[in-house]
Hints:
By secondary structure, the chain is α/β, with parallel strands linked by helices. The protein contains 26 helices and eight strands.
Amino acid sequence: MEYKVLYRKYRPQSFDELFGQDHIKELLLNSIINEKLSHAYLFTGPRGTGKTSTAKLFAKTVCCESPQNGIPCDKCIPCLHFADSTDIIEIDAASNNGVDEIRELRDNVKILPSFSKYKIYIIDETHMLTQSAWNAFLKTLEEPPGHVIFILATTEVQKVPITVLSRCQRFDFQRITDEVIEEQITNISKKEKIKITKEAITEIGTLAEGSMRDALGTLDQLSKLNTKIDVELLSSSYGVLTTDSIEKILQLLNDGEVDKYIEELNKIKSNGIEPNILLSRLLDLLLQNAILKKTNKECKYNNIENVNEMIWNLENCYNKTNQYVLIKSIFVKHTPVPDIVKITQPKSEDDVKETSEKNISREITEVVMESVETQKEEIQNIEEIVNIRINNAYVDACIKLKRAFQTDWKKFIDILTKTNGLKHLALIKETEVEVVSPTNVIISTEFYSNSVLFNTIAKEVETRLAKELNIDKKIVCLDTETWQKEKAAYIKNKKTKEYKLMPEPEIVTTTEAFNSAELLFGDELVEIN
């Protein structure tokens, strides 16, 4: 017997077997029972939610000679020959979307059905039709022969012309709930004798995102391994992120276990998980946590600093370069620091050796990501330096100097690219020159975490710039949002405020801290590629 994939094998054969679209099922059944059929229907909704299956069920029931309460009899000629019936015409609009194909359809609708009461056209992916094809189809769609019914199916209803929408009865298919999908997976697994754990069923239901076809496709693929399907098998074989994995990472973040959640994030990346999938799952759980907190209910992650800001930062990571680096940076930024952990800057190599590994991780985290908030007396407040450099950049700022420096900055980046002589090259490439004066430069980058990291290596960049192009300027980096605020303030104040050069306090840093950063973040963050 020819093997059929599960989603085809268990395609609903009657409305009783159609799950997850009860509102649509009831309307269609009543229209059949009461013989109040329209000449054109439009089924729209996400993939795998039953649009084509419902269209076939509707066509079979309408063509049946003696349906019982909207259920086909499966005994008459139209029912017995439904699979190969010439009266049920399925058209793929993705490959038959031209005027010629529609003209042929328009001519064929005049031909009477062979042995059924109706001739039914199911046009899938109907949004793919060209504008010319729609124009040729409009009159036929509005006034087809009495023996013809059109069923249009699409996942992108916004692409269907309004003139077509107004000629159809529209049915919006909803995503199938996880509970319905899990119930179906459970029943099909029993019938197919597939061994699967309850946790794996739940994960498949979540992974499907409301698509029954996707869920059954996943089950079908894993069943071929001829072993019990559990969460571990699902994760390793199908490259998915389980809820347990995400909860574990967030719990480590909540507990301040920097090394451990960095390790978990590295594992996820090495398993080939798309960063956008990771972001989606993280945002889902964080949002649930934020809602619980807002409603004064018990939540798991009370220690994470500023969850709402973290959600916003993660949202901005979608479809960006170096996404895993950005995710790690955001995690570090929002890591809670227990009161018992004292962040200090070791004064000597002996101090470094005596500091525990965990405290070193905390120290590097604070130096790189939270230096604006916490510094010891030996390290001057970076926020003060940033403000001074912003002020000094406004002194004698000149558009000609900016244009010249933009050219030099591109040349500088080209030199670094060819020589591979400076870490954080990708970080430098993602900056824009905003303000240039004879002594100072303001540049911008999209993310706050990147601006903080750049300012910690500004001295190294300045030294290399002087060496390569003999340009001696102080550089400060701002994230885009902060730069827009500073720009607005400058425009507002420049007529009344006189900007004067301000001396910078000396910044003391230690190479030990930055060398230790590789232990915490790995080469990926310390040297962005």
